From TrEMBL, chain A:
One of its GO terms (cellular component) is membrane. It comes from Paenibacillus paeoniae. Residues 21-193 form the Spore germination protein N-terminal domain. It is a lipid-anchor. InterPro entries: GerAC_N, Spore_GerAC-like, Spore_GerAC-like_C, Spore_GerAC_C_sf. Keywords: Germination, Lipoprotein, Membrane, Palmitate, Signal. PANTHER family: SPORE GERMINATION PROTEIN B3 (PTHR35789). This is Ger(X)C family spore germination protein. One of its GO terms (biological process) is spore germination. NCBIfam families: spore_ger_x_C.
Automatic annotation (TrEMBL), chain B:
One of its GO terms (cellular component) is membrane. One of its GO terms (biological process) is spore germination. The lineage of its organism: Bacteria, Bacillati, Bacillota, Bacilli, Bacillales. It comes from Paenibacillus paeoniae. This is Spore gernimation protein. InterPro entries: Spore_GerAB.
Length: 402, 368
């Protein structure tokens, strides 16, 4: 009897090994980046897969590229992925995917199907970063990037670096995009990638042996998405304005000129170390006015103007110049977003949160009402330090006799 | 002599049972960003129901649910109701078994067949059931620290990764109180709060009779606050739109956690909580079913464990797919549940114990 019991218990163990769902490392192709394009009425899905052999060992890359890029085509995403098995020896494994690049054409067609695929499948992580691309997504995925072995991971680190040091663009994950597009304004903004340089693709390892590559992937322009379609691009400076307005600036550098009104060469710059933007919607004479209050704090990096910075009133003067400059960046950004009639700034959401009853009335016409909105800016910059020197070099050089 | 457990074990049992799988889902989401308020309202109503249950329990401190039915409605009607209620407990247990099957294949082990997943968890529950109430209480006591620690870690990580945006809860009561009440009653009251009715079966097994009310109230209040908090937390991270879309909101939230480039993919924690929570529900309802059925039929407890287990396992295959499973859960189960959770206890409260059983009910009290 006891023997039978033990046998039964032992056989239970056989059921608990979890072999049904085993994933063997040498059966999967780990994907580091995905690209989506729209060509000839079909989705083209490009995968960048990591070649483990090329990144292992001390050599650090060596003669072969660490990734391989291939595409498959289909009427929807998942069928394209399943077709990949016709040209791949291993099962595609998406859990370590770092970025998704959406080609311009695909983005104009609509990103809805992509988001749908992400929501429905548990192997697609929503912490994946999203980018738009001026060229095809495939072209971006083919580029090798100096310093990093896996381009997908490199681009992901690029946006993190950008967000932390100059905040012209913001890291947009699938989750952020979903939240924005499912929200009340149905609009979002996604950073774009472009190939800068000669246009010759940096897609061979030996090209990295030179000190300068003919072209490189860089962040460029901000794509505005309404509904699920790309409707327009705005430039880097305007993108900064958008970031200021949406409270996504933390650290950035602001270049400013010496004279009030911002005329002349911007020879000085200040580093913003911390900033908070608060927006409050208010109704005035049948119009919506957004009270934007920006509190920034930072230090002086480079100074090209006159005056003695050892005096508090001179510092106030400099602070005022920086404030003016920030205000003009924000206004520029606002004007261009207004022209596109896409509320990527979340103004509608703010009205909904604070005046839900009024929002119900205007929600329908928000696309028309949004451009009518005005903003009222109040920028407050505090310079906490002028760095390790006082007067500017130019000032210090001036001799009393001359 | 029936099996007994102490007041702390009762407290832990109430806490873990009510937590169950509840925080994994965003209940009350028809009220949009006010889901947490709906939860709060339902929790308050749930507490009132517990007052009713405890009043009934005090009339016959040693009785289980089956005996209570007998004392109130007589041997035949009471016995019949007890059997029906025992079947209902088995049905609710089966729903949780099926939940384990569906959620595991959906979110974790997509190639593993459901029958084996459901068989494994039910086998553990059946083993617990065969050992009785005392063992159930002790198992839950063992699992309790894991549950608390896991939730603690989850909450901490979600806060640290800066995902919580409190303004997602605005505007409060956008469309007045009606949507909140509609979400709260009867759905939120029935699940999870009014599932406390299962404790009418278990109260009789608590050794420290005097503290039952106090312990029950406090643990239920505590766990209600926790559930409302978890509900609001999920809303703050996902917002009402996304919270409504996803099948497993807490899993979704944890997948978004990314700390210091290495603390990510914390799905394991959610999986652990899912299994523990659902296991506790399955085992408790299973045992409640067996106890009630045994009282009503007079058959021994041990003789009923196996047949009811088979019944639960077989019934868990009846629904053809997940959509059907959820549809029955929301459109059918929640319509019938109030009969057992609210109507029958209230009728008992009004009818009062029949004269000929009065001494029997109180005798039991002196017996311990």
């Amino acid at each position: 009897m006891k023997a039978i019991r033990l046998l039964l218990l032992g056989s239970l163990l056989l059921l608990q090994t979890g072999c049904w769902n085993r994933v063997e490392l040498n059966d999967i192709a780990i994907i580091s980046a995905t690209g989506v394009d729209w060509e000839n009425g079909k989705w083209v899905l490009t995968n960048q897969i990591v070649i483990p052999k090329a990144i292992s060992g001390q050599a650090g890359g060596g003669r072969t590229a660490a990734v391989n890029v291939f595409s498959s085509t289909g009427d929807n995403f998942r069928i394209a992925i399943s077709k990949a098995s016709q040209e791949s020896s291993r099962r595609l494994y998406f859990s370590h995917n770092q970025i998704v690049i959406i080609g311009q054409e695909a983005a104009r067609k609509g990103v809805g199907p992509l988001l749908e695929a992400y929501l429905r499948n548990h192997d697609s992580r929503e912490t994946v970063d999203v980018f738009l691309s001026k060229g095809t997504a495939r072209l971006m995925l083919e580029q090798l990037i100096p310093l990093e072995q896996i381009p997908g991971a490199a681009i992901q680190r690029m946006i993190v670096n950008e967000e932390m040091s100059s905040s012209s663009y913001r890291q947009m994950t699938i989750h952020h995009v979903l939240m924005d597009l499912l929200g009340h304004t149905k609009a979002t903004s996604i950073p774009g990638l472009a190939l800068a340089g000669s246009g010759e693709s940096t897609d061979r390892v030996d090209m990295l042996s030179q000190t300068s590559t003919p072209s490189k992937v860089r962040l460029s322009e901000l794509g505005l998405v309404y509904g699920d379609k790309l409707v327009g691009w705005i430039g880097e400076e305007q993108s900064k304005g958008v970031m200021w307005l949406t409270n996504h600036v933390d650290k950035t550098t602001v270049a400013f000129a010496c004279t009030a009104g911002g005329k002349g060469r911007q020879g000085s710059s200040a580093r913003v170390l911390h900033s908070v933007t608060k927006v409050k919607p208010q109704q005035q004479d049948g119009k919506w006015v957004m009270k934007v209050n920006i509190e920034a704090q930072g230090t002086l990096l480079e100074y090209d103007c006159g005056g003695d910075l050892m005096k508090p009133e001179e510092i106030w003067e400099v602070e005022r110049l920086v404030e003016e400059r920030i205000a003009s960046i924000v206004t520029d950004g606002w004007e261009v977003v207004r022209k596109h009639k896409v509320d990527v700034l979340g103004f509608g959401t703010l009205i909904y949160k604070h005046h839900p009853k009024t929002w119900k009335v205007i929600e329908r016409n928000w696309k028309e009402e949004f451009p009518q909105t005005e903003i009222e800016l109040n920028v407050n910059m505090k310079l906490s330090s002028t760095g390790m020197s006082g007067k500017s070099f130019k000032e210090a050089q001036k001799k009393p006799g001359l | 002599m029936q099996q007994q457990f102490g007041k702390f074990q009762l407290a832990i049992l109430i806490i873990v049972f009510l937590i169950g799988s509840t925080p994994l889902f965003e209940l009350g989401i028809p009220a949009k960003q006010d889901a947490w308020i709906a939860m709060l309202v339902a929790a308050a109503a749930g507490l009132l129901l517990t007052v009713v249950y405890l009043t009934l329990h005090k009339r016959a401190p040693n009785a289980g649910l089956g005996e209570l039915y007998k004392y109130h409605f007589g041997r035949y009607i009471g016995g019949f109701i007890a059997i029906v209620h025992a079947l209902w407990f088995a049905y609710e247990s089966m729903r949780n078994v099926r939940d384990v099957g569906e959620l595991t294949t959906m979110a974790l082990l997509s190639f593993t067949p459901k029958w084996i997943i459901m068989f494994l968890i039910l086998a553990v529950a059946a083993y617990t059931a065969s050992k009785g109430v005392e063992v159930l209480a002790r198992i839950i006591q063992l699992l309790f620290p894991i549950v608390i620690l896991s939730y603690f870690i989850v909450i901490l990580l979600v806060f640290f990764s800066g995902l919580v945006k409190v303004n997602q809860l605005l505007p409060i009561m956008e469309n007045g109180p009606m949507p909140i009440l509609k979400a709260a009653f009867p759905n939120l009251l029935s699940f999870p709060f009014a599932q406390m009715v299962v404790f009418l079966v278990l109260f009789g097994h608590v050794s420290e009779k005097k503290s039952i009310s106090k312990v029950t109230y406090w643990s239920q209040i505590g766990v209600s606050i926790f559930l409302v908090f978890m509900n609001a937390l999920i809303l703050c991270v996902l917002g009402p739109e996304l919270a409504e879309l996803t099948a497993l909101p807490l899993l979704h939230v944890l997948q978004l956690v990314r700390l210091a480039n290495f603390l990510e993919r914390l799905d394991v924690v959610v999986t652990l909580l899912l299994f523990i929570g659902l296991f506790v529900k399955i085992a408790t309802l299973y045992i409640a079913s067996v106890l009630t059925a045994s009282m009503a039929t007079g058959w021994s407890y041990r003789a009923l464990v196996f047949p009811i287990g088979i019944l639960i396992y077989a019934a868990s295959f009846l629904e053809p797919n997940n959509t059907y499973h959820i549809w029955i859960g929301l459109d059918v189960t929640l319509k019938i549940a109030p009969l057992f959770q609210i109507a029958l206890p209230l009728v008992m409260l009004v009818v009062g114990i029949r004269k000929k059983y009065r001494s029997a009910a109180l005798d039991g009290a002196q017996g311990t």
